[in-house]
Specification:
Number of helices: 2
Order of helices and strands: EHEEEEHEEE
Strand content: 25-35%
CATH topology: 2,3-Dihydroxybiphenyl 1,2-Dioxygenase, domain 1
CATH class: Alpha Beta
Number of domains: 1
CATH architecture: Roll
Strand order of the largest sheet: 1-4-3-2
Radius of gyration: 15 Å
Shape: globular
Low-confidence stretches: none
Distance between the termini: 34 Å
Helix content: 10-25%
Number of strands: 8
Oligomer: single chain
Structural class: alpha/beta
Mean pLDDT: 93
Length: 138
């Protein structure tokens, strides 16, 4: 098993992310629709959390896999925000294909497709009010 290493120019800064939501099914539907993927919901009664997982391998410890994934989290302790941390989600194969589905899925486009040295970025507002970045090579 791989171990986490000190952050440097060759390691990931992030190991995991959580996007706060108010309505699990609405948020799950939004992300599944715009990213063309399937997500899994798990409830944790002890912490009153409902987590909706982006695709992952349950047999792999994600933090040491070299891969970064995360969840939508409905929790009494977390609230969606337009002004909090901004994460960027992989919009493969082309950012415009994802952006074209955002409004129909109930979201808003805050920053349209923008060229940067690493490819393209955009920022959307999801159905819960979070601002989320998208990133793609095309």
């Amino acid at each position: 098993m791989q171990k986490l290493k000190k952050i440097d120019a060759h390691t990931n800064v992030l190991t995991w992310f959580e996007i706060p939501v108010l309505n699990t099914l609405r948020a799950k539907s939004f992300y599944e629709e715009i990213l063309d993927l399937k997500m899994t919901i798990r409830s944790f009664p002890d912490s009153e959390e409902e987590l909706t997982f982006f695709p992952y391998d349950p047999n792999v410890i994600q933090a040491t896999s070299g891969r970064i994934t995360g969840v939508l989290t409905k929790s009494p302790n977390k609230k969606p925000s337009r002004s909090g941390v901004l994460i960027y989600i992989n919009a493969y194969p082309e950012i415009q294909l994802v952006l074209d589905r955002v409004i129909a899925a109930g979201g808003k486009i805050i920053l349209s497709k923008t060229l940067i040295p690493a490819g393209y970025i955009a920022v959307i507002e999801d159905t819960e009010g979070n601002h989320i970045g998208l990133s793609s090579e095309k």
